[in-house]
Specification:
With about 160 residues, this protein is an alpha+beta fold. Helices cover about 50% and strands about 10% of the residues. A four-stranded mixed β-sheet has the order 1-2-4-3, covered by helices on one side. The termini are far apart.
């Protein structure tokens, strides 16, 4: 190897160094302008699972939300005791879940036979407690007066995650 070959090798190494410095400068300028969170998201590709499930749920709900879903099942608990109503609800909810129903109406009455000391309708409180303790049930509320008003409660059955 003569001196000319050494100089050529030296020049090629210097050219490579200059090119890599230029690339590093350009990439550092780009990273300074970009949001660090965007860089991280591009690099790791994280997906927001909550956003996807809410988009899916929104697409299955009619405009106006749960209130505008059609009622797919109805049970009337008038005249039953708390214990009888609880058992009837268990059976009704199990059947409704098995059939894939989404919104149910539970008619319990307005409570003409209220507990005088507490001014509470026994069946309405039992229904509320049942809905709160059953993990398959979600949102609930009272329908319009033509469907029972305060004498009835609608409830949404949660859909299983796929």
């Amino acid at each position: 190897m003569d001196f000319g070959d050494i100089l050529e090798q030296w020049d090629s190494m210097e050219t490579k160094k200059a090119n890599s410095k230029q690339i590093n400068r350009e990439s550092s300028q780009n990273t300074q302008k970009a949001n660090p969170m965007d860089i991280w998201l591009r690099r790791y590709g994280v997906q927001d699972k909550d956003a996807n499930s809410s988009e899916q749920e929104k697409s299955t709900l009619p405009r106006g939300g749960y209130k505008n879903l059609p009622i797919e099942g109805k049970i009337d608990l008038h005249g039953l005791t708390k214990e009888e109503a609880w058992e009837a609800l268990k059976i009704f909810i199990n059947d409704s879940v098995a059939k894939g129903k989404r919104k149910l109406l539970i008619v319990h009455g307005k409570g003409n036979h209220r507990l005088e000391s507490q001014n509470i309708c026994p069946l309405a409180e039992t229904i509320r407690l049942f809905i709160e303790t059953d993990s398959r049930l979600g949102a609930s509320g009272h329908p319009e007066s033509k469907q029972g008003g305060k004498g009835a409660t609608w409830v949404i059955i949660k859909q299983k995650k796929r």
